[in-house]
Design goal:
single chain; 381 residues
Length: 381
């Protein structure tokens, strides 16, 4: 008699939840995903997909579509300071990791299609209120069925995580960003170059993300009210601090689809309890300063599916998964926090010192390796 098919319920149909669902289904699990919204949607504009997540997307079988849809970046990022002068924070001889920039909506669509094609059931309008460590979700109308695995992929303010008291700290970082799209035009430097520029606490990042659009992110401290005014967009404030990029900033609509959103660090005592685990922002939300928040979430979700599929004892598999994967994700979160402190909260009177210190730090292989810890990570499961 063949073994009974193992079952999983997932709260949240964001990038991490869909990646976990697809990976589990491809390992032979029967999977159902619950999305509280009436339809599947993804916030934000563009996203950087580094080598580590591209390897995971290869495993899911969607790499080719990702590569065809996004824009491959094969040149180093140009980082400029408040004087419009280049600041080097990576070694000149460092190998450039593979990177594709893509629209978040395209990535989300591709993962949703992958999940459905792998046999996943997605239920919209299904609001999850919590979970039982014995393996079931709680909904507005009561408890769902017992299953072999429950995954909370329900974001920074996860109901699954909080119902099991897994959070140690949720820290609002007092900064954030708006993520927008602008039309591409012939002759744009962005067609071949990724750009980031720091001026005091404001940071602009730009890169081509599709055949029609550039991705633009505008970061600033919470206290910078003119910088936070991105709905409607405060063009004058951002042109004042970044005059070299006026021609791009002027392409932002007065009322962009996205607004300034704050960053959070989520730190948990553990990522699992019984047959329930948390992934993505629910487990390790972080500022996207290194472009790794969603990347490590997707990678970790794929590795989760490997771990629980190899081991018949789900709680033991979850403990081993966290033991092996958490150290590099914790370090990525810390480095992203540090990057944000330096880029957004450095004293304005000492900007000259920031421009001096960063290239000196870049000469340290330890510092460079710390920035790349997620990119270079190879899961052992």
């Amino acid at each position: 008699m063949p073994p009974q098919q193992r079952t999983a319920e997932i709260a949240g149909a964001g990038l991490a939840g869909l990646a976990a669902a697809a990976a589990l289904a491809q390992q032979g699990w029967r999977v159902r995903v619950h999305e509280r919204g009436s339809e599947l949607r993804e916030i934000g504009a563009g996203i950087y997909l580094w080598k580590n997540v591209l390897d995971a997307l290869r495993e899911l079988g969607v790499y080719d579509e990702i590569a065809e849809t996004g824009i491959r970046s094969e040149v180093p990022r140009l980082l400029q300071d408040h004087r419009q002068q280049e600041v080097n924070i990576v070694g000149r001889d460092d190998e450039l990791p593979e990177l594709i920039v893509i629209l978040r909506t395209d990535l989300h669509r591709i993962l949703a299609e992958c999940a459905v094609n792998s046999g996943v059931e997605i239920v919209t309008g299904s609001k999850v209120l919590g979970a039982d460590p014995d393996g079931r979700l709680e909904f507005e109308d009561g408890w769902g069925p017992y299953v072999d695995l429950v995954v909370g992929a329900d974001g920074v303010f996860s109901r699954v995580r909080d119902s099991l008291k897994l959070a140690e700290k949720i820290i609002e970082l007092k900064d954030g960003c708006g993520r927008h799209l602008i039309p591409r035009e012939e002759g744009d430097e962005l067609n071949t170059q990724r750009i980031e520029m720091w001026n005091a606490g404001r940071r602009i990042g730009m890169a081509a993300a599709s055949k029609d659009n550039h991705y633009v992110f505008l970061c600033c401290p919470e206290s910078d009210l003119p910088g936070r005014m991105q709905q409607p967009f405060n063009l004058e404030a951002w042109v004042d601090s970044h005059p070299n990029y006026r021609k791009y900033l002027e392409r932002l609509p007065r009322h962009p689809k996205e607004r300034w959103r704050p960053f959070y660090n989520v730190i948990c005592t553990t990522w699992s309890k019984g047959k329930v685990c948390i992934v993505g922002d629910a487990a390790h939300g972080m500022a996207p300063n290194l472009g790794q928040g969603a990347c490590v979430a997707i990678v970790n979700s794929v590795v989760l599916a490997r771990a629980v599929s190899k081991h018949p004892d789900v709680p033991k598999a979850l403990a081993e998964w966290e033991r092996l994967e958490r150290p590099y994700i914790d370090k990525t979160q810390r480095m992203s926090f540090l990057y944000g402190r330096v880029g957004t909260h450095w004293p304005k009177s000492l900007l000259w010192l920031r421009s001096l210190v960063l290239p000196l730090l870049a000469k340290s292989s330890r510092f460079r390796n710390s920035l790349r810890v997620a990119v270079d990570h190879k899961p052992s499961i």
